[in-house]
């Protein structure tokens, strides 16, 4: 059976639903459908922000993103900015609250209320959501596009919006198939597509792996071989049985992986006391020579972490500073403030919150999100080469790019 429609949106995630809502609002007489391969649409919305859905951030800046050029990203973000996002969600029944971090969450603290509001708005605008239905092929035809699915259902549409996501959290339905669809319609992809906002792994015998459950504020830096800082983040850091996670790690992961691919000798360095540099900590310790390491640093570093840092350089946390040989003291200060991490890998797309890489923005008309390679094809969301840091930035890209595609289609 072949169904003829005006617009098919492939993917019912944040960007796809946003595109559907605005396409429907602007074209009330058109037949618009969204198809998604997942049994339950909006899975990423439901798991985001620990199940609370961090809808956006109060202050969005292109510098919070990587991938395509900041100027290109800015052009899309300003089409539907934070204020418009807040107003939109308020309009569909979702009040947002700002937390100390700057993140905006629904006042309900429940992601399902966000998803339900989006689904309800689709229904109000007569947008049909068909799932699970996986689009396998999209071929150009006289009437626009011929879409075929795994189940044998076929659609002919004058226009198509690809909002398939990237490869992160594949169980949500974003398994990278959208990239194949984009390529089949004339697009190329960035040379590298890799997990972003992803926990990092360390060798099993690294001391950090024995500290599972310890959470501390820490600073992480990507450095060149000679110590030049390329990128840094300071935030909550979770030590785990496999290595490292938490906001600082997720944010730095994209930059570490990217620089490591370009320069193999790039390194990741952690400072367990971000308020201290090597020199500042050395001065602080030497000013109180008759006190022990634990009495001086015990208020800042968890006991388990402090003891194992001491063990690694063969000193005791109960030792007075003036009783520690100079070389060992320097080794201790270095492991606290400049500990190089032998990263062995990452936890992959299964645990990554977003994908780095995708369809470059220079292949898309940013005023409309229409493909420059294939007339009538639009792209939005994570399939594009744009990835932001944690805090609602990736959702904002989804809302902005989805809105732009929706009003333009």
Commentary on this structure:
- The protein is α+β, with helices and mostly antiparallel strands and 409 residues long.
- It has two domains: 2-193 and 356-408, FAD/NAD(P)-binding domain; 200-346, Translation factors (Elongation Factor Tu (Ef-tu), domain 3, Beta Barrel), CATH 2.40.30.
- The protein is built from twelve helices and 23 strands.
- It has helices at residues 14-26, 43-51, 70-77, 82-91, 111-124, 177-184, 247-262, 278-286, 293-297, 303-312, 326-337, 393-408, and strands at 2-10, 32-35, 56-57, 65-67, 96-98, 103-106, 128-130, 135-141, 144-149, 154-162, 194-196, 200-201, 215-223, 229-239, 243-245, 267-271, 339-341, 345-346, 354-356, 364-365, 370-371, 377-379, 386-388.
- The strands form six sheets. Strands 1, 2, 7, 8, 9, 10 and 22 form a seven-stranded mixed sheet that branches. A seven-stranded antiparallel sheet has the order 17-16-13-14-15-12-18.
Distance between the termini: 25 Å
Second rung of CATH, namely the architecture of the largest domain: 3-Layer(bba) Sandwich
Which of globular, elongated, flat, extended, rod-shaped describes the shape? Answer: elongated
Main sheet record: 7 strands, mixed
What proportion strand?
A: 15-25%
The CATH superfamily title of the largest domain: FAD/NAD(P)-binding domain
- What is the number of helical segments per DSSP (H or I, 4+ residues)? 12
Percent of residues in helical segments? 25-40%
Mean pLDDT across every amino acid position: 96
Structural class, from secondary structure content? alpha+beta
CATH class of the largest domain: Alpha Beta
Low-confidence stretches: none
What's the Cα radius of gyration?
24 Å
Structure summary, number of beta strands = 23
- Count of separate structural domains: 2
CATH topology of the largest domain, anyone? FAD/NAD(P)-binding domain
């Amino acid at each position: 059976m072949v169904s003829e429609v005006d617009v098919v949106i492939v993917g019912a995630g944040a960007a796809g639903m946003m595109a559907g809502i605005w396409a429907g609002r602007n074209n009330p007489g058109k037949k618009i459908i969204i198809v998604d391969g997942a049994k339950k649409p909006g899975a990423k919305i439901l798991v985001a922000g620990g199940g609370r859905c961090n809808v956006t951030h109060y202050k969005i800046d292109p510098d919070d993103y990587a991938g395509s050029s900041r100027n290109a990203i800015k052009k899309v973000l300003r089409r539907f900015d934070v204020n418009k996002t807040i107003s939109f969600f308020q309009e569909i029944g979702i009040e947002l609250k700002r937390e100390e971090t700057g993140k905006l969450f629904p006042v309900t603290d429940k992601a399902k209320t966000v998803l339900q509001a989006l689904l309800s708005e689709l229904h109000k605008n007569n947008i049909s959501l068909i799932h699970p239905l996986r689009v396998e092929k999209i071929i150009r035809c006289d009437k626009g596009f011929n879409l075929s699915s795994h189940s044998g259902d076929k659609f002919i549409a004058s226009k198509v919006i690809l909002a398939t996501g990237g490869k992160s959290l594949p169980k949500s339905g974003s398994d990278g198939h959208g990239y194949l669809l984009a390529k089949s319609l004339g697009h190329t992809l960035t040379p590298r597509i890799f997990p972003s906002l992803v926990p990092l792994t360390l060798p099993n015998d690294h001391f950090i792996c024995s500290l599972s459950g310890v959470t501390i504020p820490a600073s992480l830096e990507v450095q060149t071989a000679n110590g030049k800082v390329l990128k840094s983040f300071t935030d909550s850091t979770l030590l785990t049985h496999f290595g490292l996670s938490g906001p600082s790690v997720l944010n730095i992961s994209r930059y570490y992986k990217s620089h490591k691919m370009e320069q193999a000798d790039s390194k990741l360095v952690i400072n367990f006391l971000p308020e201290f540099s090597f020199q500042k900590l050395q001065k602080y310790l030497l000013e109180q020579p008759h006190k022990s390491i634990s009495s001086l640093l015990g208020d800042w570093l968890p006991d388990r972490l402090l003891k194992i840092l001491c063990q690694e350089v063969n000193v005791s946390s109960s030792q007075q500073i003036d009783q520690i040989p100079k070389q060992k003291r320097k080794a201790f200060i270095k492991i606290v403030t400049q500990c190089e991490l032998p990263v062995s890998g990452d936890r992959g797309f299964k645990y990554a919150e977003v994908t780095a890489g995708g369809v470059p923005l220079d292949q898309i008309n940013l005023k409309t999100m229409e493909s420059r390679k294939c007339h009538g094809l639009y792209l939005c969301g994570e399939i594009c080469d744009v990835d932001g840091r944690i805090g609602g930035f990736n959702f904002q890209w989804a809302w902005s790019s989805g809105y732009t595609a929706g009003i333009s289609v």
